[in-house]
Design goal:
- This protein is of the alpha+beta class.
- It contains 21 helices and 23 strands.
- Among the domains are: about 55-250, Penicillin-binding protein 2a (Domain 2); about 315-475 and about 480-540, DD-peptidase/beta-lactamase superfamily (Beta-lactamase), CATH 3.40.710.
- The termini are far apart.
Amino acid sequence: MSQAIPSKAQERLQVIKAHFLTFVILVAASTLLARLTWLQLLQNNYYQARAVENSTRVTFLRAPRGIIYDRHGNLLATNKQTISMIAIPNELEHCQDLASRLSRVIDEPQAKLLNILLKAKASNSVLPVVIERDIDVRTVSRFYDQKLFLPGIDILPDISRNYPQGEIAAHVLGYCGEITQSQLKRRPERRMGDVVGQDGVERLYDVQLRGIDGEQRARVNAVGQSISAETSKPVITREPQAGLPIVLSIDLDLQQTAYEALGNRSGAVVAVDPQTGEVLALVSRPSFDPNVFTRKINKAVWKRINAPDHPLYNRALSGFPPGSVWKAITLLTALECKAVKPDTKLHVSGGISLGGFFFGDWTKSTGLFDLVKCLAWSRDSAFYQMGLKLKPEQIKEWGVKFGAGRTTGIELRHEGQGLVPDSAWKLRVYHEKWYPGNTLHMSIGQTYVQVTPAQAARIFAGLGMRGRVPDLHLVIKIGDRQIPSPRPEKVKVHSQYLDVVLAGLKAVVASGTGGATRLGSIEVAGKTGSAEAPPVGSKTHAWFACYAPADHPRIAICAFVEHGGHGGSTCAPIARAVLQKFFGLEVQKPTEPNKVPKPKPKPKRN
């Protein structure tokens, strides 16, 4: 049977199908052509950059922190070359297994390492994250033994902080450490694992000191390994810029002398230039080695920096009862408030009775003393008599004028303000009125009064400069910029009244309780102090504050020893050693009263 001839309707259907198929093919071809054009022409630069990125490892070049110098150019803080272990976030896989292997290499808890790796991986950054810095040779060796099983982990040269003077200037310089999570939130421009200043000058001037990190790139394969020695050679794409150098007013020789003179006792020494307020020495002991914060802290180091004697505590900026060094303020207040006259003489004795309480003097000897002699021999009974005629607000006014009860201006955190109380303060804090006996204690620097060693040095600088009270400061140069000294505060004081106080301070050293600081041809003026402090029955805090030369001061010093006993026998020799160093005299190292020298062995008879 012959095949049927297709109808015209079927022919039209076939034509439509052919046209539709042609249309589909043309649309598909056009789409592919458009996409190809988009990828090859319009997006060429983007995908080329992605390809390079996927075959390139980016690492930072740590910028050296700015060097910190003393006033004579001696190094206080510098940098050293170290090796750090890093993680490359976009190359990390199987973090649980990686943390387990890594913990055996660097001897860190697996949980801690896992936390670091997971945070790094979550960032998906091409920049590395520091896992461990300043690693030793044995750790490097263990790493290379296991490198094949540690994808995304590498080591590279790094820079860490170095403090060549160790403990000597620790409370001035502070220390550097890895940035914390809370700091990272406040400073989004920093990276996880960055090293920042954590205390002292290092923290306050971190922005100026830190510099700008550089960058280098190296070719790697899909698993982050070097392709060959030639192609994987790093190329520096941005040179690191070092931080700005900083020059401090500290005199390293004077700082070391003060540190050694204080010895192993808890206390502080502060020396300042009365004319400019520049801090020449600031020592607090016990101290700590800031180098320990640049590397992993082991249990022994952790125990030491958290010891009961609080080595991180800056005693130079902390308040303590000042004892008799405060009597210079009381005497000036009594004169200015007309409680006594320059020619007044007072009967001194073993103490006075008031309100059923007996307020004792440190000695029972009696006599009629002028005001100069009262200050020279620190007679409590004389200052009690002045206190009976004064209000606490009057003593506070003159104390605050010369720098008590407020910060000194020094560029360090955690500076205490001390305390100069009055009746309103006692009512607010203790909910009771101020009694006359409180004023007697205040007049001799006991009970509520609190002064920092730095404040005491400033107060005596202001007295020696006849009412020109300097603002203390440490930084004298940043980079090429000289930092001018702040203008001193000027206290209006009657010259004839101030003369009495200054004569008394001279007499303290020339013929009174501060004789241990006599320097022959260089006249020293100062005041000893012994302040009662808890626990009950313990030795008093020891103080000595002074300035020299007496008529044209070039240096003011405060030496303080916790529970050191008498200021004249404990702290005056410390101040003398600093004075001798400053004036170029032979330094006589003070002995520590608590240490009894061992007797020399007797020669054996033959």
